[in-house]
Task: structure prediction
Amino acid sequence: MPSTEKKSAAKGEPPHYETGPIVVGSDGSPGGADAVALAHDLAGTSSRRLIAEKVPGVAAPSLGLIGLAEREDAGTLVVGSPHRGRVGRALLGSVAHHVLHHSPCEVCVAPRGYAGRERHRILKIGVAFDGTAEARTALRRAEALARDTGAKLHLIVAEDPVVAGIQGGEEFSRLTNAPTVLKVALATVAASIQADGETLDPGWRKADKSVAEAIAAACERDVDILVAGTRKPLDRLLVGSVAGHLIDAAPCAVLVVPHEDGD
Result:
Protein backbone atom coordinates (compact mmCIF):
# COMPACT_ATOMS: atom_id res chain seq x y z
CA MET A 1 0.00 0.00 0.00
CA PRO A 2 1.54 3.34 -0.98
CA SER A 3 2.07 5.98 1.64
CA THR A 4 -0.66 8.62 1.77
CA GLU A 5 1.00 11.02 4.15
CA LYS A 6 0.45 14.56 2.90
CA LYS A 7 3.40 16.92 2.87
CA SER A 8 2.88 20.20 4.72
CA ALA A 9 4.73 23.37 3.84
CA ALA A 10 7.16 24.60 6.46
CA LYS A 11 6.39 27.93 8.04
CA GLY A 12 7.09 30.71 5.57
CA GLU A 13 7.18 28.37 2.56
CA PRO A 14 4.49 28.34 -0.15
CA PRO A 15 2.01 25.43 -0.08
CA HIS A 16 3.09 22.31 -1.95
CA TYR A 17 0.39 22.79 -4.57
CA GLU A 18 2.14 26.02 -5.60
CA THR A 19 5.56 24.39 -5.98
CA GLY A 20 5.13 20.65 -6.56
CA PRO A 21 4.84 19.48 -10.16
CA ILE A 22 1.57 18.77 -11.94
CA VAL A 23 1.51 15.05 -12.66
CA VAL A 24 -0.71 13.18 -15.10
CA GLY A 25 -0.71 9.60 -16.29
CA SER A 26 -2.55 8.34 -19.33
CA ASP A 27 -3.37 4.84 -20.57
CA GLY A 28 -4.45 6.07 -23.99
CA SER A 29 -8.16 6.03 -23.16
CA PRO A 30 -10.48 9.02 -23.79
CA GLY A 31 -10.44 9.75 -20.05
CA GLY A 32 -6.64 9.78 -20.11
CA ALA A 33 -6.64 12.24 -23.02
CA ASP A 34 -9.00 14.51 -21.06
CA ALA A 35 -6.64 14.38 -18.07
CA VAL A 36 -3.60 15.23 -20.20
CA ALA A 37 -5.40 18.20 -21.79
CA LEU A 38 -6.44 19.54 -18.38
CA ALA A 39 -2.94 19.05 -16.96
CA HIS A 40 -1.46 21.10 -19.82
CA ASP A 41 -4.00 23.87 -19.20
CA LEU A 42 -3.19 23.95 -15.48
CA ALA A 43 0.55 23.97 -16.17
CA GLY A 44 0.10 26.80 -18.64
CA THR A 45 -1.18 29.07 -15.89
CA SER A 46 1.91 28.80 -13.66
CA SER A 47 5.62 28.07 -13.63
CA ARG A 48 5.11 24.60 -12.17
CA ARG A 49 6.65 21.64 -13.96
CA LEU A 50 4.40 19.24 -15.88
CA ILE A 51 5.18 15.53 -15.77
CA ALA A 52 3.16 13.33 -18.13
CA GLU A 53 3.75 9.59 -18.33
CA LYS A 54 2.00 6.59 -19.77
CA VAL A 55 0.33 4.43 -17.15
CA PRO A 56 -0.64 0.92 -18.31
CA GLY A 57 -4.35 0.23 -18.11
CA VAL A 58 -3.83 -2.82 -15.93
CA ALA A 59 -6.17 -4.22 -13.31
CA ALA A 60 -5.38 -1.38 -10.88
CA PRO A 61 -4.27 1.69 -12.89
CA SER A 62 -4.98 3.86 -9.86
CA LEU A 63 -1.97 2.32 -8.11
CA GLY A 64 0.21 3.40 -11.01
CA LEU A 65 -1.11 6.95 -10.78
CA ILE A 66 -0.63 7.12 -7.02
CA GLY A 67 2.87 5.70 -7.35
CA LEU A 68 3.69 8.26 -10.03
CA ALA A 69 2.49 11.11 -7.79
CA GLU A 70 4.55 9.84 -4.87
CA ARG A 71 7.69 9.29 -6.94
CA GLU A 72 7.56 12.79 -8.44
CA ASP A 73 6.56 14.49 -5.17
CA ALA A 74 3.51 15.90 -6.97
CA GLY A 75 1.63 18.98 -5.93
CA THR A 76 -1.36 18.09 -8.12
CA LEU A 77 -2.41 14.76 -9.62
CA VAL A 78 -4.71 15.05 -12.65
CA VAL A 79 -6.98 12.15 -13.61
CA GLY A 80 -9.79 11.64 -16.09
CA SER A 81 -13.26 10.25 -15.70
CA PRO A 82 -14.04 6.92 -17.37
CA HIS A 83 -15.53 7.08 -20.86
CA ARG A 84 -18.67 5.30 -19.76
CA GLY A 85 -21.14 5.75 -16.94
CA ARG A 86 -23.77 8.21 -15.76
CA VAL A 87 -23.25 11.67 -17.28
CA GLY A 88 -19.78 10.54 -18.32
CA ARG A 89 -18.25 11.09 -14.90
CA ALA A 90 -16.49 8.81 -12.42
CA LEU A 91 -18.32 5.69 -11.35
CA LEU A 92 -18.34 4.41 -7.78
CA GLY A 93 -15.20 2.32 -7.40
CA SER A 94 -13.58 3.90 -10.45
CA VAL A 95 -9.95 4.94 -10.83
CA ALA A 96 -10.86 8.54 -9.98
CA HIS A 97 -12.55 7.54 -6.71
CA HIS A 98 -9.71 5.24 -5.70
CA VAL A 99 -7.13 7.92 -6.43
CA LEU A 100 -9.17 10.40 -4.44
CA HIS A 101 -9.01 8.06 -1.43
CA HIS A 102 -5.27 7.45 -1.58
CA SER A 103 -3.55 10.35 -3.33
CA PRO A 104 -0.61 11.98 -1.49
CA CYS A 105 -1.61 15.37 -2.93
CA GLU A 106 -4.58 17.31 -4.28
CA VAL A 107 -6.49 15.67 -7.13
CA CYS A 108 -8.02 17.32 -10.19
CA VAL A 109 -10.61 15.30 -12.14
CA ALA A 110 -11.23 16.20 -15.78
CA PRO A 111 -14.79 16.00 -17.12
CA ARG A 112 -15.62 13.70 -19.99
CA GLY A 113 -14.80 15.21 -23.38
CA TYR A 114 -12.50 17.90 -21.99
CA ALA A 115 -9.81 17.25 -24.62
CA GLY A 116 -12.28 18.07 -27.41
CA ARG A 117 -13.51 21.35 -25.96
CA GLU A 118 -12.62 24.57 -27.74
CA ARG A 119 -12.37 26.70 -24.60
CA HIS A 120 -9.66 25.63 -22.19
CA ARG A 121 -8.94 28.93 -20.45
CA ILE A 122 -9.90 29.12 -16.79
CA LEU A 123 -12.09 32.22 -16.54
CA LYS A 124 -14.29 31.37 -13.57
CA ILE A 125 -13.42 29.27 -10.54
CA GLY A 126 -16.21 27.90 -8.39
CA VAL A 127 -15.66 27.21 -4.70
CA ALA A 128 -17.87 24.82 -2.75
CA PHE A 129 -18.12 26.66 0.57
CA ASP A 130 -19.90 25.88 3.83
CA GLY A 131 -17.92 27.89 6.39
CA THR A 132 -15.86 25.01 7.79
CA ALA A 133 -12.08 24.93 8.07
CA GLU A 134 -11.90 22.62 5.05
CA ALA A 135 -13.93 25.08 3.00
CA ARG A 136 -11.57 27.87 3.99
CA THR A 137 -8.66 25.72 2.79
CA ALA A 138 -10.46 25.28 -0.54
CA LEU A 139 -11.03 29.03 -0.77
CA ARG A 140 -7.33 29.75 -0.20
CA ARG A 141 -6.46 27.25 -2.92
CA ALA A 142 -8.98 28.84 -5.27
CA GLU A 143 -7.46 32.26 -4.60
CA ALA A 144 -4.01 30.95 -5.52
CA LEU A 145 -5.42 29.55 -8.75
CA ALA A 146 -7.20 32.83 -9.46
CA ARG A 147 -3.92 34.72 -9.09
CA ASP A 148 -2.27 32.34 -11.57
CA THR A 149 -5.06 32.53 -14.14
CA GLY A 150 -6.64 35.96 -13.66
CA ALA A 151 -9.98 34.19 -13.23
CA LYS A 152 -12.81 35.40 -11.03
CA LEU A 153 -14.12 33.45 -8.05
CA HIS A 154 -17.70 32.31 -7.56
CA LEU A 155 -18.47 31.01 -4.07
CA ILE A 156 -21.31 28.50 -3.86
CA VAL A 157 -22.92 27.91 -0.47
CA ALA A 158 -25.33 24.98 -0.61
CA GLU A 159 -25.41 23.58 2.90
CA ASP A 160 -26.76 24.66 6.24
CA PRO A 161 -23.55 25.91 7.93
CA VAL A 162 -24.90 25.01 11.37
CA VAL A 163 -25.13 21.34 10.35
CA ALA A 164 -21.74 21.53 8.62
CA GLY A 165 -20.26 23.06 11.75
CA ILE A 166 -21.55 20.30 13.99
CA GLN A 167 -20.15 17.64 11.66
CA GLY A 168 -16.84 19.44 11.19
CA GLY A 169 -16.27 20.44 14.79
CA GLU A 170 -16.88 24.13 14.14
CA GLU A 171 -18.83 26.53 16.34
CA PHE A 172 -21.74 28.39 14.79
CA SER A 173 -24.51 30.30 16.50
CA ARG A 174 -28.10 29.29 15.83
CA LEU A 175 -28.57 32.53 13.94
CA THR A 176 -25.78 31.75 11.50
CA ASN A 177 -27.14 31.21 8.00
CA ALA A 178 -25.83 30.67 4.49
CA PRO A 179 -26.02 34.35 3.39
CA THR A 180 -23.99 35.35 6.45
CA VAL A 181 -21.38 32.66 5.79
CA LEU A 182 -21.13 33.81 2.16
CA LYS A 183 -20.78 37.48 3.13
CA VAL A 184 -18.02 36.74 5.63
CA ALA A 185 -16.16 34.53 3.15
CA LEU A 186 -16.30 37.13 0.39
CA ALA A 187 -14.88 39.70 2.79
CA THR A 188 -11.75 37.54 3.21
CA VAL A 189 -10.95 37.36 -0.51
CA ALA A 190 -8.01 39.53 -1.60
CA ALA A 191 -9.12 42.84 -3.07
CA SER A 192 -7.18 42.12 -6.27
CA ILE A 193 -9.42 39.13 -7.03
CA GLN A 194 -12.91 39.60 -8.42
CA ALA A 195 -15.34 37.48 -6.42
CA ASP A 196 -19.05 36.97 -6.00
CA GLY A 197 -21.27 34.15 -4.84
CA GLU A 198 -24.66 32.58 -4.37
CA THR A 199 -26.54 30.52 -1.83
CA LEU A 200 -28.53 27.45 -2.81
CA ASP A 201 -31.17 25.29 -1.19
CA PRO A 202 -30.12 21.67 -1.76
CA GLY A 203 -33.36 20.29 -0.31
CA TRP A 204 -34.75 19.63 3.11
CA ARG A 205 -32.53 16.63 3.85
CA LYS A 206 -29.33 18.52 3.03
CA ALA A 207 -27.67 15.14 2.47
CA ASP A 208 -24.19 15.06 0.94
CA LYS A 209 -25.55 13.86 -2.39
CA SER A 210 -28.24 16.55 -2.65
CA VAL A 211 -25.72 19.23 -1.65
CA ALA A 212 -23.31 18.03 -4.36
CA GLU A 213 -26.07 17.94 -6.96
CA ALA A 214 -27.09 21.51 -6.13
CA ILE A 215 -23.49 22.72 -6.42
CA ALA A 216 -23.02 20.80 -9.68
CA ALA A 217 -26.14 22.40 -11.14
CA ALA A 218 -24.80 25.86 -10.25
CA CYS A 219 -21.63 25.05 -12.21
CA GLU A 220 -23.60 24.36 -15.40
CA ARG A 221 -23.59 28.03 -16.34
CA ASP A 222 -19.97 29.04 -16.83
CA VAL A 223 -17.73 27.61 -14.08
CA ASP A 224 -14.53 26.17 -15.58
CA ILE A 225 -13.15 24.46 -12.48
CA LEU A 226 -14.72 23.78 -9.09
CA VAL A 227 -12.55 23.69 -5.95
CA ALA A 228 -13.75 21.66 -2.97
CA GLY A 229 -12.23 20.67 0.35
CA THR A 230 -12.63 17.52 2.41
CA ARG A 231 -13.46 17.11 6.08
CA LYS A 232 -10.87 14.36 6.39
CA PRO A 233 -7.52 13.63 4.75
CA LEU A 234 -7.95 12.27 1.22
CA ASP A 235 -6.79 8.81 2.24
CA ARG A 236 -9.79 8.57 4.58
CA LEU A 237 -12.30 10.38 2.40
CA LEU A 238 -15.75 8.86 2.72
CA VAL A 239 -17.37 7.83 -0.55
CA GLY A 240 -20.56 9.51 0.66
CA SER A 241 -18.93 12.91 1.11
CA VAL A 242 -19.83 16.01 -0.88
CA ALA A 243 -16.44 15.93 -2.64
CA GLY A 244 -16.94 12.30 -3.60
CA HIS A 245 -20.32 13.06 -5.14
CA LEU A 246 -19.04 16.20 -6.88
CA ILE A 247 -16.61 14.30 -9.08
CA ASP A 248 -19.59 12.26 -10.27
CA ALA A 249 -21.96 15.15 -10.89
CA ALA A 250 -20.09 18.35 -11.78
CA PRO A 251 -19.99 19.34 -15.48
CA CYS A 252 -16.58 21.00 -15.07
CA ALA A 253 -13.17 19.98 -13.76
CA VAL A 254 -13.16 19.36 -10.00
CA LEU A 255 -10.10 20.10 -7.84
CA VAL A 256 -10.26 18.34 -4.48
CA VAL A 257 -7.96 19.86 -1.87
CA PRO A 258 -6.68 17.77 1.06
CA HIS A 259 -7.43 18.52 4.65
CA GLU A 260 -4.76 20.70 6.29
CA ASP A 261 -3.57 19.35 9.63
CA GLY A 262 -3.96 21.82 12.43
CA ASP A 263 -6.14 24.23 10.46
Q: What stands out?
A: The first helix runs from residue 16 to 19.
